[in-house]
Specification:
The protein has 240 residues and is an alpha/beta fold. It has helices spanning 16-22, 25-39, 66-78, 96-102, 115-130, 153-161, 200-205, 210-226, and strands at 42-44, 56-59, 83-87, 105-108, 135-138, 165-171, 191-194. It is built from 8 helices and 7 strands.
């Protein structure tokens, strides 16, 4: 897989050092092995995502380690680093920011009234998918203690690019960071559960406006992820 890619915003361009470091085969193998060893990371239902892909992997976001856990697991599945959507503030974290730029990750501006910036990020993700790269998204948009409602980005991208969405349940992640002392917060028993990929054409065929199709598609992704989690979901009926 060609690891060269276009960068829309120069702020997000990786340095030559981090690009070479992150895409070194040795470094990637060590990264995967370390996360598998520390967090007991294993994958269930591998047969659900037959090659060649690509796929949009839409996961829950229950810990601060989810991105790296998902990247390690998906590297085992696809043999490549998946592109990922991340909060743009993460790029300002020393070392971590350099790594995220080189993966590459797509920065998503989560501030209010930044719809244009978010649309540019979605278009950049779509370009990666059309180039044959895999994409992983934390579908709630932020880390939560309970499974929250999903944003519509995965469904929107799937409809735009005709790439299937593979819902992903990350189990064993809730207690990795919360209320744990060192070194227990750096070890665990994590399982990544793959679910049957959802075809955007099936949701188009059911009819409705684009907004209705995205909402129905997003609910299907949410329900697939929720079906195999080890923590509870928020009760949407109790929201104001």
């Amino acid at each position: 897989m060609d690891n060269r890619f276009e960068v829309v915003n120069p702020r997000y361009a990786p340095s030559p050092f981090w690009r070479a470091f992150v895409h070194s085969r040795v470094v990637q193998r060590v990264f995967v092995r370390v996360f598998k060893r520390l967090f007991g990371l294993h994958i269930r239902n591998l047969e659900q995502v037959p090659p060649p892909g690509p796929y949009i992997f839409a996961a829950n976001h229950g810990s601060h380690y989810d991105l790296f856990l998902a990247l390690a697991a998906l590297h085992s599945i696809t043999g490549q680093m998946a592109v990922s959507a991340v909060w743009d503030g993460a790029y300002d974290i020393p070392i971590i920011g350099g790594i995220l730029k080189a993966v590459p990750c797509i920065a998503v501006d989560t501030r209010p009234r930044q719809e244009d910036a978010r649309m540019r990020a979605l278009r950049e993700m779509a370009a990666h998918l059309r180039a044959g790269r895999f994409l992983v998204m934390g579908s709630e948009g932020e880390r939560r203690d309970k499974l929250g409602e999903f944003e519509g980005g995965a469904a929107f991208l799937s409809l735009l690019t005709r790439v299937k969405v593979a819902p992903v349940s990350l189990r064993g992640v809730q207690n990795l960071f919360r209320d744990l002392s060192w070194p227990n917060r750096y070890r665990g028993n994590v399982e990544l559960v793959l679910h049957t990929p959802l075809d955007p054409e099936d949701f188009k065929a059911a009819g409705g406006t684009r907004r209705e199709i995205v909402a129905r598609f997003t609910r299907a992704i949410h329900d697939a992820v929720a079906a195999d989690l080890d923590y509870e979901a928020e009760d949407a009926s109790k929201k104001p």
